[in-house]
Design goal:
mainly beta; Alpha-Beta Plaits; 56 residues; two-stranded antiparallel sheet
Length: 56
């Protein structure tokens, strides 16, 4: 199960450098590529907006 970034994302960039598989893309709201995501949760742990959670 991949992680997903919600509309709470403020595009601060904190998560991009933390992703070990480079699954996160920049934008107005950042996006996680589910085919690359390895479900490690590192991005969710560093997100100051708590905008990243496991996809339901």
């Amino acid at each position: 199960m991949a992680y997903k970034i919600s509309d709470s994302c403020v595009a601060c960039g904190t998560c991009i450098g933390e992703c070990p598989v480079e699954a996160i893309s920049e934008g107005d709201i950042y996006v996680i590529d589910p085919s690359k995501c390895i479900d490690c949760g590192t991005c969710a742990g560093v997100c100051p907006s708590e905008a990243i959670a496991p996809e339901a």
